[in-house]
Amino acid sequence: MRTTHTTETHEWLMARGRDGVRRIEKLGWPRLARIYRANRPNSPARKAINAECRRLEYTPRVILGING
């Protein structure tokens, strides 16, 4: 398994850019999958990614399985 070095925090994911859009909404699924795997279970970052998947009517399991 490849090791990932991510420093993205929940605050970073939820921060809004100049255009007013949250970063979590702009990142692609492969990058979100790497961030998800780099964080601990039940961490705020994982919960935010799960919520984003559900908001878009996907199951987190499917999205993370496709991009894993």
Q: How is this structure best described in words?
A:
The protein has one domain. It is 56% helix and 0% strand. It has helices at 10-14, 23-26, 29-38, 44-55, 60-66. The relative contact order is 0.18.
Report the average pLDDT across residues: 86
Low-confidence stretches: none
How far is the N terminus from the C terminus? 10 Å
Please count the helical segments: 5
Q: Roughly what percent helix?
A: 55-70%
Q: Indicate the structural class.
A: mainly alpha
**How many domain units?**
1
The overall strand count is 0
> How many strands, which pairing sense, and closed or not: the largest β-sheet?
none
Estimated radius of gyration: 12 Å
Compressed to H and E, one letter per element, the order equals HHHHH
Percent of sequence in beta strands: under 5%
* Overall morphology: globular
How is this structure best summarized?
The protein has 68 residues and is mainly α.
Per-chain topology:
Elements: H1 10-14, H2 23-26, H3 29-38, H4 44-55, H5 60-66
Q: Main attributes?
A:
mainly alpha; 56% helix; 68 residues; 0% strand; 5 helices
